[in-house]
């Protein structure tokens, strides 16, 4: 099970295992804000399984530019939708092919379905008469946070709503 860790200012900081979260709570470094129904069984006791914890001391996080794009981050940015045909995407395509001098930057990578990727090959969009449905770019700085939220749990939503308003 995963546990959302909130910084002392209530902003999402990371996601850890519930066992790690329970250790932070037992050592007095965090408080439980929400629990799961299934407790953690220890040799001597049943400990509530934390779903969301709040650190007692603020952890300073260095704000950085987005990391280099990865397949996972490009698919997330583009909503797992093919930029060419709008079908579900599972791969990434270079808009300007690498064989033609294209780089692996946020601005040159897009989500793509397998069929479009195979059809495009190392051709340019002009050669195919294709257009992009989006303008690929690095996500805005405020979108980046140290916690990866591929599939946020329902119990986390009240704590993530606070982040969306700031």
Automatic annotation (TrEMBL):
<dbReference type="InterPro" id="IPR003615">
    <property type="entry name" value="HNH_nuc"/>
</dbReference>
<feature type="domain" description="HNH nuclease">
    <location>
        <begin position="69"/>
        <end position="118"/>
    </location>
</feature>
<dbReference type="InterPro" id="IPR052892">
    <property type="entry name" value="NA-targeting_endonuclease"/>
</dbReference>
<dbReference type="GO" id="GO:0004519">
    <property type="term" value="F:endonuclease activity"/>
</dbReference>
<keyword id="KW-0540">Nuclease</keyword>
<dbReference type="Pfam" id="PF14279">
    <property type="entry name" value="HNH_5"/>
</dbReference>
<keyword id="KW-0255">Endonuclease</keyword>
<protein>
    <submittedName>
        <fullName>5-methylcytosine-specific restriction endonuclease McrA</fullName>
    </submittedName>
</protein>
<keyword id="KW-0378">Hydrolase</keyword>
<dbReference type="InterPro" id="IPR029471">
    <property type="entry name" value="HNH_5"/>
</dbReference>
């Amino acid at each position: 099970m995963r546990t959302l860790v909130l910084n002392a200012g209530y902003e999402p900081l990371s996601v850890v295992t519930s066992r790690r979260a329970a250790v932070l709570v037992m050592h007095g470094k965090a408080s439980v804000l929400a629990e799961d129904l299934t407790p953690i069984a220890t040799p001597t006791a049943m400990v509530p399984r934390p779903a969301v914890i709040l650190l007692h001391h603020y952890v300073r996080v260095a704000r950085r530019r987005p990391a280099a794009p990865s397949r996972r981050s490009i698919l997330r940015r583009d909503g797992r939708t093919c930029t060419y045909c709008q079908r579900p995407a599972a791969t990434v395509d270079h808009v300007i092919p690498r064989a033609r001098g294209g780089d692996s930057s946020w601005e040159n990578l897009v989500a793509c379905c397998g069929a479009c990727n195979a059809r495009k090959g190392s051709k340019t969009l002009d050669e195919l008469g294709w257009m992009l449905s989006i303008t690929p770019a690095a996500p805005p700085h405020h979108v980046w946070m140290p916690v990866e939220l591929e599939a946020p749990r329902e119990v986390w939503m009240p704590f993530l709503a606070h982040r969306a308003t700031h």
